[in-house]
């Protein structure tokens, strides 16, 4: 029996029951308390009084990261959480192929480009969750569909990379995810279920519990869809649990585990759909974190262990492991005018690859690395911050690799900030590129290096935020894939330069309207494969306070220009222009139950567009849901 | 009374909202065009796995046989399919001596070297020459004919990851 309609109906019944009692409803006489006093948009989602461990925006004050709140990701009109990040900054580009899942292997979307680096595969973009890197060991890239937003507090997208603080793979950028912990004693629950076109069902539950010195969190999310065409169906299930112990006044120990199971397939080009090219992914990530203050030092120890199994229709089977530990110590001197960060870390990657049909096993040699790093921040006068850092990385395969960075941020006036940063980053080849025939092995590959520079200006008067940055990347030995099996090549290319400019405009205090616009233009040179030349995102929001809650109507749009399926400007795709919309009614009952029915309308203009050639995106479609917070 | 209030809320807010959402969801499905493909090539020709605009019928159609109607994405597209001509195949098998006799064909001199031909029937990729524009809410019957088909070399390699 299909339980989805029953569950939706059940939630609808709860929603009716959760409405405020008679006497405060419309048409029932004058409310005892003025309605506008009862309703406060900020009170609708107090975020369950969540505290975040690392509250400073970034460890490097000269970073200008894109900060996306977890709430924003969970309520996005876009199809996936990664696309929600792309919506917030024009220099982040994420490809898509359908109504929910990005997939893995051939035909997958979810390639993340940040300022022209990254893409398919995403091994130049590092995803860090609660201080621990999260990537598939053998293929060396994050799994796009493993980005589960149920417990996320906020996400920082650090553009331009930071190899000094994050090590290998942090070349194009870092997506740093911080999860939530409960703040006050008690239990809170958030449940969001939605159903829509293409038999799409989405369910998220998050539970927060605090009892004295112990915090506990749990999250579950499930997604399934039939897809908008044959072969595009799929499902994902993710579960997370975490517990944090307060050890006295100045120490906490937290343990988290996240498991994810993905099922789906490559639907193939629209004119030649595949219905049997399935994949199955099972991954688990364990992260610990010990934070403590020792004399004048703040210490943080983060061990992690990540493993996964991938199965494909053609017999491919892989099991990969990554494990490591990072130790960091920070201390302030001279009334916080000088901050020193010292760190050390090590990781180990191993795995096995077999073909279950032919029973052939590929030889994969494990890789290990260790590094020591430091960062010094100096604030000689208010508003001026200088940052410098170095990392010495030692790889068992490539030996010693030096990395460095330097940055400056200067608040010229209270409203105006100038900033500039230069970083030297690197990525070591993945086990796949070295040893596996996908599409071909090349054990002679050298590590990639990139020097990223940016400079920008920010203007933040009370009613708007305006920023503009120019950036340039000089990359050497980038690993590129050419041709197809059996004539494929995986080689280092000598030199590549990327330059671009991006800007943002946000109108904040024009109630009841909000408006956000971001745009980016870049020159990526010859390597144009899935690396667009220009992109813009827009979002407009209108809200109205009503009797029992707040009605919020939002429209967001994306325009992508100069997308090519191949390097050297070959196989150009039409520009993407797509708008999504949402309508939400956020209400809080006197018993503090939040009820939020909503409708997401995707592709409002019913445009025909595609990010990947012949992988046409769905037309107009809907998702209707109900969210409850207790 | 709370019960009455709930009923009023149900009537005035949730019911219209539910109706709106129901018809919105329904309209998305109805808007997708329906397509039928008919094999009109020749009496002895079979076609397999015809597909257009994101849908594929995993079936074999004999002459004048039609697929069931199915909804697909709107837009312009060609029908791609695999073609097999059993008559030509059998004639070749007789020519190369892999089968003894075949009615309807001459008794050509049999070549006893069976290694030069595979006994496995081969389905070749074909596509229609003309494109069909299937629009939202439409219903299209596409007939595949002998003078509107060509070999299909368009199947791309994997996009890669």
UniProtKB/TrEMBL annotation, chain A:
Residues 203-585 form the TonB-dependent receptor-like beta-barrel domain. It holds the Pfam family Plug. Transmembrane segments: none annotated. Keywords: Cell outer membrane, Membrane, Receptor, Signal, TonB box, Transmembrane, Transmembrane beta strand, Transport. One of its GO terms (biological process) is siderophore transmembrane transport. This is TonB-dependent receptor plug domain-containing protein. It comes from Candidatus Raymondbacteria bacterium RIFOXYD12_FULL_49_13. SUPFAM superfamilies: Porins. It is a multi-pass membrane protein.
TrEMBL record, chain B:
It comes from Candidatus Raymondbacteria bacterium RIFOXYD12_FULL_49_13. This is Uncharacterized protein.
């Amino acid at each position: 029996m299909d339980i989805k309609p029953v569950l939706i109906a059940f939630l609808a019944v709860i929603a009716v029951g959760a409405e405020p009692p008679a006497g405060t409803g419309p048409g029932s006489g004058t409310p005892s308390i003025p309605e506008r006093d009862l309703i406060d948009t900020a009170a609708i989602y107090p975020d369950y009084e969540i505290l975040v461990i690392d509250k400073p925006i970034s460890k490097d004050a000269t970073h200008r990261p894109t900060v996306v709140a977890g709430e924003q990701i969970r309520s996005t009109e876009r199809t996936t959480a990664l696309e929600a990040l792309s919506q917030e900054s024009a220099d982040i580009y994420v490809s898509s192929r359908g109504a929910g899942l990005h997939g893995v292997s051939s035909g997958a979307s979810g390639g993340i480009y940040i300022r022209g680096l990254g893409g398919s595969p995403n091994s130049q973009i590092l995803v860090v969750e609660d201080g621990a890197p999260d990537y598939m060991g053998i293929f060396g890239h994050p799994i796009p569909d493993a980005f589960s937003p149920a417990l996320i507090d906020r996400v920082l997208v650090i553009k331009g990379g930071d190899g000094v603080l994050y090590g290998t793979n942090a070349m194009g950028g870092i997506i740093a995810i911080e999860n939530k912990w409960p703040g006050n004693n008690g239990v809170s629950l958030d449940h969001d279920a939605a159903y829509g076109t293409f038999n799409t069902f989405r369910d998220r539950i998050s539970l927060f519990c605090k009892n004295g010195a112990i915090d506990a969190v749990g999250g579950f999310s499930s997604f399934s869809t039939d897809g908008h065409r044959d072969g595009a169906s799929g499902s994902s299930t993710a579960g997370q649990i975490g517990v944090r112990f307060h050890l006295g006044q100045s120490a906490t120990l937290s343990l988290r585990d996240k498991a994810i199971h993905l099922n789906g397939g490559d639907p193939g080009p629209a004119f030649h759909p595949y219905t049997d090219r399935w994949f199955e992914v099972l991954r688990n990530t364990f992260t610990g974190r010990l934070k403590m203050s020792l004399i004048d030092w703040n210490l943080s120890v983060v061990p992690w262990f990540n493993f996964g199994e991938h199965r494909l229709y053609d017999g491919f089977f892989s099991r990969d492991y990554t494990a490591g530990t990072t130790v960091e110590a920070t201390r302030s001197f001279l009334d916080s005018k000088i901050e020193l960060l010292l760190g050390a870390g090590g990781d180990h990657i191993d795995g096995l690859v077999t073909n279950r049909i032919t029973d052939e096993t590929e030889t994969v040699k494990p890789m290990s690395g260790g590094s020591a790093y430091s960062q010094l921040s100096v604030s000689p006068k208010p508003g001026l911050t200088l940052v410098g850092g170095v990392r010495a990385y030692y790889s068992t395969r490539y030996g010693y690799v030096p990395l460095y960075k330097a940055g400056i941020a200067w608040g010229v006036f209270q409203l105006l900030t100038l900033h500039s940063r230069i970083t030297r980053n690197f990525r070591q080849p993945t086990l796949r590129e070295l040893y596996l025939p996908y599409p071909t092995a090349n054990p002679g590959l050298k590590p990639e290096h990139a020097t990223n520079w940016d400079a920008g200006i920010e203007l933040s008067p009370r009613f708007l935020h305006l920023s503009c940055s120019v950036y340039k990347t000089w990359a050497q030995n980038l690993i590129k894939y050419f041709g197809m099996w059996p004539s494929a090549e995986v080689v280092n290319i000598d030199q590549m330069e990327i330059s671009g400019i991006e800007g943002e405009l946000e109108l904040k205090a024009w109630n009841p309207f909000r408006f956000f616009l971001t745009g980016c233009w870049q020159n990526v040179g010859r390597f144009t494969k899935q690396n667009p030349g220009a992109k813009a995102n827009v979002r407009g929001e209108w809200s109205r306070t009503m009797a029992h809650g707040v009605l919020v109507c939002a429209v967001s749009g994306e325009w992508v220009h100069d997308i090519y399926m191949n390097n050297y400007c070959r196989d150009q795709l039409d520009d993407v222009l797509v708008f999504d919309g949402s309508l939400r009614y956020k209400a809080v009952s006197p018993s503090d139950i939040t009820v939020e029915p909503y409708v997401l309308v995707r592709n409002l203009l019913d445009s025909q567009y595609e990010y990947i050639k012949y992988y046409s995106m769905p037309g107009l479609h809907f998702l209707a849901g109900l969210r409850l917070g207790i | 009374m709370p019960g009455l209030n709930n009923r009023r809320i149900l009537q005035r807010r949730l019911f219209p909202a539910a109706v709106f959402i129901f018809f919105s969801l329904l309209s998305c499905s109805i808007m997708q065009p329906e397509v039928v493909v008919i094999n009109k090539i020749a009496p002895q020709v079979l076609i397999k796995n015809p597909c257009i605009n994101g849908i594929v019928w995993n079936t074999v159609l004999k002459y004048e046989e039609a697929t069931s109607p199915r909804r697909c994405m709107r837009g312009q597209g060609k029908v791609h399919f695999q073609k097999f001509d059993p008559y030509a195949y059998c004639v070749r098998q007789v020519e190369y001596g892999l089968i003894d006799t075949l009615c309807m064909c001459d008794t050509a001199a049999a070549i006893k070297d069976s290694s030069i031909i595979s006994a496995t029937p081969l389905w070749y990729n074909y596509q229609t020459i003309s494109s069909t524009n299937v629009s939202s809410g439409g219903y299209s019957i596409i007939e595949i004919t002998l003078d509107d088909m060509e070999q299909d070399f368009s199947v791309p390699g994997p996009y890669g990851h």
